Amino acid sequence: MSNPAMNVSDIAAEMATADRVLVIERLFDAPRALVFKVWTDAAHAARWYGPRGFVVTDMKADLRPGGKWRTCIRRDDDGSELWHGGEYREIVAPERLVFTFAWDQEVGSQAHETLVTITFAEHGGKTLMTFRQEVFDSVAARDGHRGGWTGVMDKFAEYLAAL
Q: Is residue 83 part of a domain?
């Protein structure tokens, strides 16, 4: 377990949800300060955000603890729009970013909310980014997000390489 001071009930809770946590690590060939900036600056993010086959149509971000973010991505093939957003919880440039994430639902409410924690570590002139999203309401939801975020990170790497 991640914290030796955890009590038995905390350990049991962590074990019960472990299969509904998504962790992706990626090494980017760019300095940490640049990776953090391109990830957190809405003008940059609007150019790479979203999995393949999607384009950003609207992106707003109030990058401060308690600030809100909201994004719309549109599918290339059918034009459908997917809105989602959340709230920034922690920003420690250029090392750590924590925010909530939830998809909008048809009736104007939000779906199940998850917490995203991203760390940016220097690694020999490159940046090791660890992306953690938790806790999904199902393994299937986690797996769907794995596919989406993997595509996002592929586009992010391509965008970084072009800078």
A: no
Strand order through the sheet with 114-123:
22-28, 126-134, 114-123, 96-103, 81-92, 68-75, 54-61
CA separation for the pair 75, 149 (Å, rounded):
15
Record the tokens describing residue 74, joined without a space: 């549109």
Residues 6+ apart with CB under 8 A from 117: 96, 97, 98, 131, 132, 133, 134
Residues of the chain with pLDDT under 50: 1, 10-13
Query: Model pTM?
Result: 0.87
Residues 6+ apart with CB under 8 A from 39: 45, 97, 118, 120, 129, 156
Q: 153 is in which domain, residue-wise? A: 19-49+90-162
Show the tokens assigned to 52: 């393949």
pLDDT number for residue 105:
81
Distance between CA atoms of residues 20 and 141, nearest Å: 8
141 is a domain residue: yes
Residue with tokens 């549109």: 74
Structure tokens at 148: 């989406």
User: By three-state DSSP, how is residue 50 classified?
Assistant: coil
